[in-house]
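hiii, so i know i said id send this last week but things got crazy w the move. better late than never?? heres the sequnce for the chain we talked about at the cafe, plus the structure i predicted for it. fair warning i was half asleep when i ran it
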Amino acid sequence: MATEIPQYGLKAYALFFSKHKDKEGFKQSELDWIVGQSMKKKIFALLLRAGWIKKQSNNTYVCLNPETIIRSLLEFKVPQIVKEAEKDYAFTNLSAIEIWSDYSYVQRGIEKSPYFIKVLKKDLKYWKNFFNKHNIPNYVNEGTTIGEYIILIPVEKLSFVEKENYKIDNLKETIKLAKLNEMYLYAYNYMKNKYKNATA
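okay and structure toks below
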């Protein structure tokens, strides 16, 4: 799973790939006359962590194919990453509709994939750092970008239920939201039929 990298990493990758493609190994020493020791370590650590190169042996590396990297940049990462979080959250709004309707309503594609997540106001800094560490764009209350991104909705109190190993708004609240918008009519009917005891 590749993640985005800053320009200095992209230039280093371009240099390695232009010389070695994705077959031939290379060593850190290739940067000896170009950058200092600490920058060289930083570049290799970045490219390894971001999944743009991999170790071939103890002291040689190989580039991943750019096509593989580009495809990987658009993969859905959030559903797995959020399970690593140490603070409470709740998928909400359209994300809750998506999960409760067993994905009969899906709001995402590789072009645009928003996730709406309630978090405690006091934990907002934690969540921004958490998603930044994973190179997932995140915004407070509103925002948009290409691919996956998070809309963090800070709240004073947080309640949730668990479904499919995710923390999520409760069913009643989600059905009520789906009922308010004709666009979610299919998901609303799906949830009403599946969870007949739920009332909206």
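btw The chain has a mean pLDDT of 90. thought thatd interest u
miss u guys!!
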